[in-house]
Amino acid sequence: MPSLKSYRVRISSVKSTQKITKAMQMVAASKLKRAQEAAERARPYARRMASVIANLAAGVSGQDAPRLLAGTGSDQVHLLVVATAERGLCGGFNAQIARLAREEIARLEATGRTVKVLTVGKKGRDILKRVHASRLVGHIDLSEVRTVDSSIAHRIGEEVRAMFDAGGFDVCTLIYSRFRSAIQQIPTAQQIVPAVAPAADAAAAPDLRGALYTYEPNESVILEALLPKYVDGQIFSAMLENQAGFFGAQMGAMDNATRNAGDLIKKLTLQMNRKRQAMITTELTEIIAGAESV
Amino acid sequence: MAATFHFSLVAPERELFSGEVEHVIAPGEEGQFGVLPGHAPFMAVLRPGALTILNGATARRIFVRGGFADVTPDGLTVLADSAVDLADVDVARVAADLRDAEDDLKDAVDEAHRRIAQAKVADLRALQDALAA
Predict the structure, then answer these.
(1) ipTM value for the complex
(2) Which residues is A41 bridged to in the sheet?
């Protein structure tokens, strides 16, 4: 049985840990709030872009369509862009995304397709390089990124487009976590190349009151210019969801850790007190026995 | 009170401007165009340049990169990769950045670096032109 001192040392150490996890939980909570606000602020652009792309894509068809929209005509080679966080201490957040990636790889390869993987964020790469190192074709380092902004999404978009233009793949799917709530993050696979135009929903299209759009210079050129921005926008939205999901998951993980530490402190305190009482009882017994013998 | 229309300037991260204005002059890729209330539906790609917002006596000039303009009966929406109010830009700083960018272009080691440096120079030159205008 450990000594009283070692109990006290252990309890003190767990208390310090508990302070840290509690602080991390509060920091994660405030960062989650900011991340959610950032996602909210990004919505006007995303909505408008989707509406314009839907409008333009409906007017341009088949072979005239830009390659980013029409595709290569084949779906043999797939690129999976797996977006995870740089850091851990977030429960199963990164592992869940990596698991979906592994399932997608297995599913695609079972049908004879070739799969390449581009990792965004260290954790995904660390998990996937264990079994799928041969499929990793690139990595985007997020360690320098303080907050997610459109420039990092643009960087990823440029890399994906460069690979596409060089004939590196036919279909590109983004794998990330959708933010349902602070306690629910849902790993999602979303195709970004060929671009999937939102359905030209009559309700979403602006009411032109009988007039027709004038396009300068013409619909095709505008669509060609906007498609890369649309893809970047989808990547940006996914990164924002991931950011919010990460902090939500970290909040939950740190909350659990704080609670576990509390339980451990209670258990250790109980054990220490029992030991202390046993020692007092022993001492009393000795004193009484000694007194009696006199 | 003069007739106004709704104008929104939106970047991917957030809405930069939203309000009623009288007149907007935008740097279209095929040429500058003005938007007044009641403009017919119109879509155009913008070149990097200054967008002017006129409201009564006030004129606000914003340098817009990667812009796209969409006019509907509900108003004008400009989607831009980035935008900066020209009033907030330091002329001397831009001149210094342009000199650095031109040096980088001269020192470019391969095609990829050259392209990036070229884009940076073009962007800063457009910014300088917008400031001078």
Answers:
(1) 0.87
(2) none
